[in-house]
Specification:
heterodimer, A: 267 residues, B: alpha/beta, Rossmann fold, 2 domains, 8 helices, 18 strands, 27% strand
Chain lengths: 267, 334
């Protein structure tokens, strides 16, 4: 394996999601003050890349499309053991949906060049579209496999892949290059060693703008995104919230009544 | 946009081993509703080998036309040849809407097709409706389900969505008439992608969670595999199924297929009984359409109580055994 690209995405830390609010005027999400972390599944993709590098050699390159503040998240991946990183950052990328994002990431992959394998997380926890793996592969004209829970490389270079499906799995054999997205069952991401944090400081993060990538303006940002946000709401719930009180006996009797009232038991 | 474009609504009919996935039948129900609103047709796209007999089933669930690609090379799902067949069909017929299930297969296939056609795709939809211009509004949960976004695809066709299994209702199966069109399939060997070495799939024995009228769901608060059996007994008494949040699946008390929520199943039973469930959004997004919701939890501040018709602040270990006994007596079951 010469080179493995791992796509990583900074996402708002799910521990702070209760702080998410909405601007009633603009109908956009307010996420100020919520720190970013690396999308959890991307760590599993990076772990798989590092394990392959340990067994077969090669270089592991992180690739991210994000604002410049994403450098902090990228350093996390470098501390885990990636060799270097490429950050695609440009205001003209803002508002990109998954199709436009795949277009930009594909340009980034071509720019990095000479890769054998592209790995990403199966989905991100914020948008959760799970579309990047297939769309990036399509843009690059490469095959792809999602839901990967097993990955081995034979000496001949071929990959044996286990893909999770409903109530089971599929075993696949693939040549290179290929694009894979992984589930968390694949592996356990390593802890970041202190020496890794120190080493990451001197690793290279190349920042590229669209002047470097030259993706057509019709393919990126809002103009390149076929899907449009038509509305956004915080979810509201309205229920009766009738609290059953009294002794355990009272509660059980009241519960049985409520269950019967639902009409799910034949009388 | 093409002036003469069709308004047809298409459903990808997912099958493995000659078994249609329920979500495809659910989508035909929704497609029928959308097509009837604009006086257009519903078509299903069916792929596989020796699967012609499934075409009539799709007609019976609401398809006017079924395109059948029956070919040995399509016997097992493979991403690239399946993409090729759907792409060719879409380019030939220009449907207005293409729906797929948000299954392992659909989640991989739909974005590849959308990227090839260069159209928009919304993921894991929980609702679909038409706006006043006949554009499809696609309702998707985001941020773990705490936010609901409505997505449109105004300038590109087809409008594509993957839809959560269980989120739509299938029409009752009845004898209907439809057109079954067999396609000639031409697949170059060089475009087949990764080779399949084997498929292992277990047969789910019990009643599927998303079809159950009563669901007893448990969370971390249930505490042990032993306690879990109480939920199973209550569900059996009520003729229902047992569901779970993520922790019981991770702990091995419940199976992956029992998980309700954003990365699991969407259910809308008549009665949902939650036991020891804290009520995180990931779970809620899969069950908030339930008709009646009862929650039992020792923590009076549990978020799940916000989403309850009936609240019981008590240890379920004190409530469930007498509740099961009482129901047994009432219905005379032993």
């Amino acid at each position: 394996m010469d080179r493995i690209i791992v796509c990583v995405k900074p996402v708002p830390d799910p521990k702070h999601w209760d702080k998410v609010g909405m601007d009633p005027e603009t109908k956009t999400l307010k996420r100020e003050g919520i720190p970013s972390v690396m999308n959890p599944l991307d760590k599993h993709a990076l772990e798989a890349a590092l394990a392959l590098r340990e067994a077969h050699g090669g270089e592991v390159v992180l690739l991210s499309m994000a604002p410049p503040f994403a450098k902090t998240t990228i350093r996390e991946g470098l501390a885990m053991g990636a060799d270097r990183a490429v950050l695609l950052s440009d205001r003209v990328f803002a508002g990109s949906d998954s199709l436009a994002t795949a277009e930009i990431l594909a340009a980034g992959c071509r720019r990095i060049g000479d890769f054998d394998l592209i790995l990403c997380g199966n989905l991100s926890i914020d948008g959760s579209t799970a579309q990047i793996c297939s769309q990036l592969a399509e843009m690059l004209g490469l095959p792809n496999v999602m839901h990967v829970i097993g990955l081995e490389q034979s000496d001949g270079g071929k990959l044996t892949i286990t893909q999770k499906i409903e109530n089971g799995y599929v075993k696949l054999a693939s040549g290179l290059p290929v694009v894979l997205s992984v589930r968390k069952e694949l592996n356990k991401p390593r802890y970041i060693p202190f020496t890794g944090i120190l080493a990451a400081e001197s690793k290279e993060i190349t920042i590229l703008s669209n002047e470097d990538l030259c993706v057509g303006p019709e393919c990126i940002g809002l103009a390149g995104s076929p899907t449009k946000m038509a509305g956004l709401e915080l979810r509201k719930f309205e229920r009766k919230k009738e609290k059953l009180e009294g002794t355990v006996d009272d509660i059980v009797k009241a519960l049985v009544e409520r269950i019967y009232q639902c009409g799910v038991i034949e009388c | 946009m093409d002036e003469k474009r069709s308004r047809d609504v298409w459903v990808f009919a997912e099958q493995r081993n000659g078994e249609l996935h329920d979500v495809s039948l659910e989508l035909l129900g929704k497609a029928r509703e959308l097509a009837d609103a604009t006086g257009s047709n519903v078509a299903a796209v069916l792929m596989g080998c020796n699967i012609l007999d499934l075409a009539q089933v799709l007609v019976n669930y609401g398809a006017d036309t079924v395109f059948v690609a029956d070919h040995p090379k399509l016997e097992q799902y493979r991403l690239l040849p399946y993409t090729h067949v759907i792409e060719s069909l879409i380019r030939e017929h220009n449907p207005d809407i293409v729906l797929m299930g948000a299954t392992a297969m659909g989640v991989e296939l739909a974005p590849r097709v959308a990227a090839r056609i260069r159209t928009g795709l919304s993921a894991h939809c929980i609702d679909l409706r038409l706006d006043e211009n006949g554009n499809l509004l696609q309702v998707v949960p985001g941020w773990g389900g705490g936010v609901v976004a409505t997505i449109a695809c105004p300038d590109h066709r087809p409008q594509m969505s993957t839809v959560m299994p269980g989120a739509m209702r299938a029409l009752p199966e009845e004898k209907r008439k439809g057109r079954i069109e067999k396609l000639s399939v031409d697949l170059p060997e060089s475009h087949m992608g990764p080779e399949i070495l084997g498929v292992e799939q277990m047969v789910a024995g019990e009643q599927p969670l998303e079809k159950a009228d009563v669901v007893v769901a448990g969370g971390w608060g249930v505490g042990s595999k032993e306690n879990w059996s109480l939920l199973e007994e209550l569900a059996r008494m009520l003729g229902g199924a047992v569901g779970a949040t993520r922790p019981p699946v991770d702990e091995g008390w419940a199976r992956e297929g029992q998980m309700i929520g954003q990365s699991g199943k969407t259910i809308r039973p008549t009665l949902y009984i939650g036991v020891g469930i804290s009520g995180v959004m990931h779970h809620v997004v899969g069950m908030d359409q339930s008709k009646h919701i009862i929650n039992i939890n020792t923590n009076p501040a549990a978020d799940s109580f916000e989403l309850s018709d009936v609240i019981v602040v008590e240890d379920f270990m004190k409530i469930l055994p007498p509740l099961i006994e009482e129901i047994k007596v009432r219905i005379g079951k032993q």
